[in-house]
Amino acid sequence: MRNSALPEGRRLSYMMSHRERTLRERTVMSKNVLIGLMVVTCAVGLVRAQGGQGGGGRGRGAQGDQFPTAQQFASSKQTQQHIATAMKIAGSDLVADAKAFCTPTGPQRPALARQAAGLAPEPDRLLEPIRMFENLYYIGFSDVGAWAIPTSGGIILFDALNNADEGRDVLVGGLKKVGLDPAQIKYLIIGHGHNDHTGGGLYIQNTYKPRILMGAPDWDTVVAGQRPDRPVMKRDMDVTDGQKLTLGDTTVTLVLTPGHTPGTIGILVPVKHQGRTHTALLLSGTQMPTRMSLAAFEHVFNDLAKKQNAETALGSHPDILVNKLPAMEALGRQYPTGPHPFLYGPERFGRYLDIMLECGRARLAALEPGNS
Q1: Does 361 fall in a domain?
Q2: Which CATH number fits the domain that encloses residue 259?
Q3: What does pTM read for this prediction?
Q4: Is residue 206 one of the residues assigned to a domain?
Q5: Considering the domain boundaries, does residue 238 fall inside one?
Q6: Cα 148 to Cα 135: distance, rounded to the nearest angstrom
Q7: Nearest one of 89, 156, 58, 144 to 323, comparing CA atoms
Q8: Tens-digit pLDDT profile for residues 38-69
Q9: Which of 114, 127, 302, 370 is 20 to 30 A distant from 171 in Cα terms?
Q10: Is residue 368 part of a domain?
Q11: How crowded is residue 354: how many other Cβ atoms within 10 Å of its Cβ?
């Protein structure tokens, strides 16, 4: 029915409803465009700050002077206010997480923490593949690993370990150990462009021909950093923020989280436990070295993760996020028949994300002049 055929009252109501709907659509569109421009600007700034350098091997941390000193952190009044807010959010059940995040560096891999303390490094141990959820496996080492997501239409991999040998023997070998056919690898998603995440990618690409996805700025640095003794993957797909990727019965959401590198990404994955579906956030970096980086994380946490009722955060490096190594190894020995130790529930995990953001604000405040 045309608008002019409506009675006067209904016509006015229709026109107002149409205008409101158009306004909402324009508002959402403007917000998405703004977020996209913000992430691109943040990535460009990080590329400049990091000198366009590609990633090295296993054990590489974030680049540049991105962390405040202990004195800066302790002397900034704004920093201490953010810490107090984080501790309030923590309540009685997230105190350990708040204390870990609200430090000058935030939580770090044990190898980096030991190095900073002047201690001898611990050997990196090869782990048996761990069934983290009914449809999510961790395959790799005690310090770094890759994720395998089996679906009805094939396998999605997240990261590719350190080199071709590890890609073949550890990653592909691990898939076979848990009964998955590596010929069914359809997608390889790279969390960021450091070599302990990309190194096995070329072997996977050449052998199984999956589509490869990575953040555009990290594609740039990885391809530019190619050497005769270290060939890299052929460039394929650029990740966009909020991008949906469906394979068989599984849809994951890709998110841009620039900070650790300009092209660092995360992925929201529907994981299954005891027949129920939950949402897990896999992060490849947690650094928020600039205000724009912080804003990108705020968007991902508040507009995407919370709206999907995410309940846990997992990292390719154990001991940084919810997946602590002792608990992972316990899962490897016996998958839980009761509550899952890594599922916090939406309310508690929402506070976990808020703590991460508040502690990120604390570090930034300590770095900014005039906040002491």
Answers
A1: no
A2: 3.60.15.10
A3: 0.85
A4: yes
A5: yes
A6: 8
A7: 144
A8: 555 555 555 544 444 444 444 444 444 489 99
A9: 114
A10: no
A11: 20
